[in-house]
């Protein structure tokens, strides 16, 4: 079965890759979970769009990752969330929220999948979050969660 990956699949490929898998694996696992779509000529045009977007977001090399790390570590990121009187949040802060806050603070565009939150952030205050920019480069971002 020929499929186009729409998300990263461990050991199989990256978004936009055309892969050949066994029928059962594709039909019962990849397609129902939204990890892949069926291959057609029209869908192949979407591949170029997906790959172009991935290349634009990708960090090229260790030197570029180090530059982005310096930008992120100098950034003061503030995230306004709904919270109760005691400082507990209604829910928790997600990596997508953090990526949006970094962008809003004037930082570089960061993939939400690259953001690692140790334990769920459920209180207001100062927190530290790790961003994996390159296999050898990780940045620590200072995040202030404020009731807003």
Largest sheet: 4 strands, mixed
Total DSSP helices: 4
Rounded Rg = 19 Å
Please estimate the helix content: 25-40%
Helix and strand element order: EEHEHHEEHEEEE
Distance between the termini: 50 Å
Please give the number of β-strands.
9
Mean pLDDT: 87
Quaternary state reads single chain
As a percent range, the share of strand residues is 25-35%
Give the spatial strand order of the biggest sheet: 4-9-8-6
Shape: globular
Q: Ranges with pLDDT <50 over ≥5 residues?
A: none
From the helix content, strand content and strand pairing, which structural class follows?
A: alpha+beta
Function: Binds to the 23S rRNA.
InterPro entries: Ribosomal_bL9 (IPR000244), Ribosomal_bL9/RNase_H1_N (IPR009027), Ribosomal_bL9_bac/chp (IPR020594), Ribosomal_bL9_C (IPR020069), Ribosomal_bL9_C_sf (IPR036791), Ribosomal_bL9_N (IPR020070), Ribosomal_bL9_N_sf (IPR036935)
Keywords: Ribonucleoprotein, Ribosomal protein, RNA-binding, rRNA-binding
Domain Ribosomal protein L9: 13-40
Tell me what you see in this structure:
InterPro entries: Ribosomal_bL9, Ribosomal_bL9/RNase_H1_N, Ribosomal_bL9_bac/chp, Ribosomal_bL9_C, Ribosomal_bL9_C_sf, Ribosomal_bL9_N, Ribosomal_bL9_N_sf. The protein is an alpha+beta fold. 33% of the residues lie in helices and 32% in strands. It is built from four helices and nine strands; from the N terminus they run ββαβααββαββββ. Strand 8 (125-134) and strand 9 (137-147) form a beta hairpin. The N and C termini lie far apart (50 Å). The model has no long low-confidence stretch (mean pLDDT 87).
